[in-house]
Amino acid sequence: MSSLSLIHRCLLDVMIATLDSADLLSATRLDTPVTNNESQDATDADVMAVGDDYAVKINQKCPILKEKFRLKLQIERNLDKAFCNKVPGRRTC
After folding, report:
1. Helix (H) or strand (E) holding 17
2. Are both 58 and 73 inside the same structural domain?
């Protein structure tokens, strides 16, 4: 048996995303999940839940960059990660 027959190719899921006119904003982490009382204090656009553990309050008044930008991302997911470790489980480039 040759060594070439033992090579396992990884199955990747590849997604390409392009963000046009993107803006980079700063945010403050809220250590507790947002309750109904807290969401009344701030508008829904200011507070964003990140999973079930915590939320962030976005500072929309102070953008980090002066101009908006375009961002092109390639997201790769290894669908064969149980058998193939040649590439990471997830990668963003």
Report:
1. strand 12-22
2. no
Q: Following CA atoms 86, 87, 88, 90 in sequence, which dihedral angle do they give, to the nearest 10 degrees? A: -150
Contact at 8 Å (CB) between 68 and 14? no
Sign of CA pseudo-dihedral 29, 34, 39, 45: positive
Domains in the chain: how many in total? 2
Residues 14-39 have pLDDT tens digits of 999 999 998 888 888 887 766 555 54
Cα separation, 80 vs 6, in Å, equals: 16
pTM of the predicted protein model: 0.51
